[in-house]
Each structure stands twice: as structure tokens, then as C-alpha cells.
Amino acid sequence: MAPAAAPRVSVFPSPQELGPALAQLVAEQAAAAAGGRFSLGLSGGSLVGLLSRDLPPAVAPTGPAAPAHWLVAFCDERLVPPQHPESTVGAYEAQLLPRLPGPGPRVLALTPGLAPAAAAEDYAAQLRQAFPGQEVPVFDLLLLGVGPDGHTCSLFPDHPLLRVEGIACEIGVEGAWMKFDLWGNASHAGIDASARSHVWGRKVNAED
């Protein structure tokens, strides 16, 4: 594997400029994905609105880069029904997925009604099934958000759960998240640091 490319940092004056850039990043990586499938991991928060507004017009409606060939998973999720206002999958199902050219992507989500540990175990099993032969799944692109308090995927720097083994883990009684090893194994990762900030941008790490 080639050495990781140097991180690229882009700064935008407002979400109006950031949203199209993130949408273009997704469209470009979907077009470049090998093997006939584009795997995309998404966080919630401000990303939902940005992508819902700007991604649908940026993606190819047909061909190998169309959403019909995408696999979408969520980097963190609350243990709540999809109709709950804090549900990540519910937010994307309401705001983004209906606006994408059909047929839509395959979506991996937490199974409702499970206890936290069981939900994380079930989600890890879904990920392994979707990425056969890979001990740690390799996503084509992960889009993560950073909150104003420095958290991402409901975790903070030096949080004990960052050292938990596996590819998915429960967060107390609240939800489940993708483990840090899975984030670092992605081919590309974008970080949206726009939450409640006067500076809007993304940071992309890429491996050729």
C-alpha cells in the first residue's frame, strides 16, 4: 500500500460553500471506487443538512457511480427508533435518501430494540458481512463531524472507549460507534469542523 498522502485542509467562508465541496468529494470518490461498489460512512449533526442540500444534484443518476451502487453506513448512532429526532439514520432517511436518484443505496443501520452491547455486536456483524474477507472493513470514504466541544462520533480525545477492541462498540446506554481502527483503515476520510464555528472546512486524509 502506498504511503498516506499528506492531509489537505480546505477553509470555506460559510456552509454555503462547504456543502458543495463535500458533495463534490463524495461524487468524485463514488466515481473512483473500484469493484463496482462505493462504501460511504456518515456521521450525523450538521453533515445531514449539508449533504441533503448539496449531494443530490452532484451525484450521477445512472452508471457505476450512481447511488444504486453505494453502501451507506453510519459512524455513530443513538439507540432510538428511526423516528426519534436524535436518530442519525432517521435524519438521513427523512432528508437525504429520498432526494438521491433511485434506486437508492444499501443502508446498514443499528437494529432497533437491542441492548447497547448487543446492538454494537449486531452492527459489527453487519459490517463484517458487508466487507467479506476484511478483518477491518475498508470504506472508500468516511465523513465525520467535529462538535464545538471537540468530540467526534460521540467520543472525546483520550476517551477510554477509544482503546476498546473490535470494529464497533456501545457508548453507555446511548448508542454504538465505529471503532477508531475502522476510521483509520478507510481509503479516504473527510472531517467537517463547521459546527458552531466561524470557520468552515474539511480535512481529508487519502491513501492511493
Question: What keywords describe this structure?
Answer:
alpha/beta; globular; 10 strands; single chain; Rossmann fold; three-stranded antiparallel beta sheet
**Based on the structure given, which CATH architecture is correct?**
3-Layer(aba) Sandwich
Extract low-pLDDT stretches: 196-208
Terminal CA distance reads: 8 Å
Main sheet characteristics = 7 strands, mixed
| Number of helical elements | 5
List the helices and strands and how they pair.
Blueprint: E1 8-12, H1 15-32, E2 38-42, H2 46-54, E3 70-74, E4 76-78, H3 88-95, E5 106-107, H4 116-130, E6 141-145, E7 168-171, E8 175-178, H5 180-185, E9 188-192, E10 200-206
Parallel strand pairs: 2-3, 2-6, 3-5, 6-9
Antiparallel strand pairs: 1-10, 4-8, 7-8, 9-10
Helix pairs in contact: 1-2
Protein described:
The protein has 208 residues and is an alpha/beta fold. The chain has a single domain (17-189), classed as Rossmann fold, CATH 3.40.50.1360. It has 5 helices and 10 strands; from the N terminus they run βαβαββαβαβββαββ. It has helices at 15-32, 46-54, 88-95, 116-130, 180-185, and strands spanning 8-12, 38-42, 70-74, 76-78, 106-107, 141-145, 168-171, 175-178, 188-192, 200-206. The strands form 2 sheets. Strands 1-10-9-6-2-3-5 form a 7-stranded mixed sheet, with helices on one face. Helix 1 packs across helix 2. The longest helix has 18 residues, at 15-32. The model is unreliable at 196-208 (pLDDT under 50).
